[in-house]
Specification:
78% of the residues lie in helices and 0% in strands. By secondary structure, it is mainly α.
Amino acid sequence: MEDIIAVFIPIIAVGGFFAWMISLSPVGRAFAERLKHGPVPRDGGGTAEDHAELVESVEQLRREVAELAERVDFTERLLGQQKAMGQLEKPRA
C-alpha cells in the first residue's frame, strides 16, 4: 500500500504544478471569467450594428477574393500563351 502512495505523490505534485501554471496563463484567466459570468448565449449576443458590420466585412472579403481570382486567371492565361509560343525565358540565377 505504501508503494502505491509513493507512486502517486510525484504524479499529484507535477499535476498540481501544471494546473497552477495553467491557472496563471491567459487560458486559465479566460476560463475563470467564463465561470464567473456564465456561458455565452448562443443567440449571437451582438447588436444589429455589429451584425451589419460583420456582413459588410464579409462582402468586402468576397469582393477582394473575386478580384484576386481574376488576377490569377489572367496570369495563368498570360503564362500559358508565353509557354505555347516558346517565349518563356529561363529563370535568372
